[in-house]
Write a structure and sequence with these properties.
Elements: H1 12-23, E1 32-34, H2 67-79, E2 82-84, H3 91-96, H4 101-104, E3 109-113, H5 127-139, E4 145-150, H6 156-168, E5 175-180, H7 184-215, H8 243-246, H9 259-264, E6 274-278
Parallel strand pairs: 1-2, 2-3, 3-4, 4-5, 5-6
Helix pairs in contact: 1-2
């Protein structure tokens, strides 16, 4: 009969080493935890691979052993991975609100993709940009690295977003890495276009329903004419925003601007390192 192993009698340093072997990937490449908007889990097709030295995959079963092991091992789990926010940087507040404070204190690396097609304003930062940077700042001083992923920096829209994020992240004392991946633009454009078309369709449906509702609503005696039907089409005086207001047509090229000199000189951060990686 096998007797139980006195695991908790081991020195704490040895237990931490065991946690590291169990919870972290045994590879040289960094492993990312992808946080996406879809509630459907991603499925993968498994391939049969034969190896004389099969890799050891992370296993979190030890976290369910007892509260002491959970509190000792959880920091190792959070510190070993980079938390990636998919294609929407606004997911960070929602993600951080769903994990305990103990987990937030042990996050070391965060990466998010800047989508130039969503929430664009020429001069002012959007609400979710300010909230996201405030959430990132709340992770300091334990946060070690902030990774920002752009599709390009060659259009006014890209540059406007880049300068806003640079200003918002300026005071965060952590290493900052800017990734330039030209392949992002096509996927972000398609995703944003589909979202915009759905929003327009729902908005038109809302206008029609609201017009029917207000047409049949009772008219108050004291304020005649207040309840007026809302037309489903804009009035003749309505002018569609010009393309120059958004400048979406110039996005997609991989030409580098003079701002690269500023980036390479690490002038966009204070008291911390900044690096640039171009993904081909």
């Amino acid at each position: 009969m096998l007797s139980s192993f006195p695991f908790m009698r081991l020195p704490i340093d040895l237990r931490l080493e065991i946690y590291h072997l169990l919870l972290t990937p045994q590879t040289k490449e960094p492993v990312d935890v992808i946080i996406e908007r879809s509630k459907k889990p991603t499925s993968y097709r498994l391939e049969l691979v034969c190896s004389l030295s099969p890799p050891i995959y992370p296993n979190t079963a030890i976290l369910r052993a007892c509260k002491q092991i959970y509190s000792e091992a959880l920091p190792t789990l959070y510190r070993a991975y980079t938390f990636c926010l998919g294609d929407n940087e606004a997911l960070l507040p929602a993600f951080l609100s769903r994990i305990p404070s103990f987990g937030r204190e042990n996050i070391r690396r965060i990466r998010f993709v800047i989508n130039p097609y969503v929430g664009y304003k020429k001069n002012n930062a959007t609400f979710h940009e300010v909230v996201t940077c405030a959430q990132i700042a709340s992770l300091a001083p334990r946060l070690r690295e902030v990774q920002i992923q752009f599709g390009s920096l060659d259009s006014p829209v890209d540059m406007a977003k880049w300068k806003r994020w640079k200003q918002l992240l300026h005071r965060i004392d952590a290493k900052k890495t800017l990734w330039i991946d030209p392949r992002l633009n096509d996927s972000l454009r398609k995703d944003s276009s589909s979202c915009i078309s759905i929003m327009k369709q729902r908005w038109n449906e809302f206008l029609v329903e609201d017009a029917d509702f207000k047409t049949n609503a009772p008219q108050p005696l004291s304020e005649p004419g207040v309840f007026q039907p809302i037309p489903s089409s804009p009035p003749p005086s309505y002018r569609e925003p010009e393309v120059d207001d958004w400048d979406l047509l110039s996005i997609g090229s991989t030409k580098l601007l003079d701002d690269w000199e500023e980036i390479s000189n690490k002038s966009w951060t204070s008291g911390s390192d900044a690096t640039v990686e171009i993904m081909g």
